[in-house]
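Standup notes
- DV: blocked on the single-chain target, sequence here:
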Amino acid sequence: MDIKGILKPLTAWKRAFQPPHTIEVPNKRTREAAERYRGFHVNDIDKCIGCGTCAAICENEAIKMVKVKDPQKGDSGYRPRIDYGRCCWCALCVDVCPTGSLEMTNEYTWVRESADDFVFIPGVDKIGHEEKKDKGYKKHEKLNFLNLERVPMRELDGKERVKSFAEVVLGYMEEEARKEAERCIGCGLCISGCPARMHIPDYIRAIAEGDDVKSLNIIYENNPMPEMCGKVCTRRCEFECSLGHLGEPVAIRWLKRYVVEQFDDLKKFVKAEPQPLNGKKVGIVGAGPAGLTAAYYLRLKGYETEIFEAAPKAGGMTFLGIPKYRFPIPSLDKQVELIESVGVKIHYNSPVTPDKFEKMLKEYDAVFIATGLPKGMSMRIEGEDHPQVIYAIDFLRKVNLGEKVEIGKDVVVVGGGNVAIDAVRVAKRLGANSFIAYRRRVVDMPADEEEIEATEHEGIPIYTQIIPLRVEDGPDGKVKLIYGKAKMVQKEGERRPRPVLIEGEEYEYVVDRIIVAIGQQPELSYLPEEIKNKIEMNRRLIKVNERQMTSIEKVFAGGDLTNWTADAISAIADGMRAVKGIEMFLNGELSWEKK
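- DV (later): unblocked, structure below
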């Protein structure tokens, strides 16, 4: 028998008469927790984008994303709801928040009768601990579980690249692409910025996993010209990337480019299996991104598709307008070869006339027009018809077609968009001292920021707040651009300041060529007069509904001809919508009267 064991509990009574080691704290006294104590969560709702990274990292499944408002670009509309019956206060959710919206207070005393009160949406449900949000656990400034730095892209040196039309951007190597793809957190907010709604997180994940063939086929689900997009896309998807709030967005465009560049013959790897012909025919005017997209996916669905293209190659303005140092011909050719391989017929050097268009309306079950904006817009100033004034779109077309263009030594490009940037950089490569004259500030330029930076790297000046007034003959066969200077005036309610001419001051540029790049407009001479008179217009563009149907029976339209965004990915999106619209129309699900 263990006598000691029996008597041992009784010995504890001797401690009953000893002073306590604990100290009684009156209820009125507040005890502050440590500055970075991990208490209850707070969330800055305006800063939160609903990416769901906090929910994905939580191993206790204590966080669930719930909808609190309608989604918009870069914001899913969802917000995290915390279940404190599951939370272990590890704060990983705070550490991985890509916007820094989620924090934890240092509140540690909180009493409620109902357990349901401990399941709430921080920042939405007001539960009385927000006053503590100035103290508590926040994302450390230097500690990042997310990789916020982009893998840099290799480029030719600015001084060297202006000597030729060699491609400027060199593309990712395999190791670089895998590393960059691993940065993606898969939130999917990028999709909200992509007009074509490409499956971006899926194809990036495939790159990270080393499966380029899988990535390629995911891309081709809703984009038949991915290498073009991978090189010249306006990358609106990247503007919505959650990593861009605290760091650099994932290089979505460059990753798409990387994938397609791995395959010289796309036909061997893209699983494009057209359905048998169903007896319906669709005629398409214009082989630009919108026309090619519509033709490709309609043919996969079993429709016979034919494209009529005035130029000797397909691509539209991606072929005729984009310089080859940005988008080389071989990159375009291999994509078009795949489109033709599924049965799409492209008739090159085949401009459509009014008579031919009327014939198409009789021979085809539906017609899709996507002829872009091939005409330059006028400055509407005196002397603009001078022989030494040329529109940028005509200049770029001539260069890309291999025609000789005499521009002389000094060239001014009027404008601030991507076309102006292309024109001034091409002029530089042709040996001219070229520069830009723009009516607003550099920060106001509609051109892609990367293209503006590239222009500066190539030593090309950009002069701002310049308003052209008239064109005159100059000395020794040159031409004068007479201009005034502008002051920027911001009126209440206006999105950006307006340039207002400073009266009484005139200056001049004496140059060999003036290249005008202030916008483009459609050329609709191929439409019969009756149709031109009946077709509804939205100012200078053709008006269409959500299925790309025009006001003319069985005529659909898309691309720059209907879309004010005027970029290739938007044209591809129009082509995709037209596919659905034409299919519904030909199946009797969409009537012209009820468009």
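- Follow-up: The chain has four domains: 41-137, 158-268, 281-374+522-586, 375-521.
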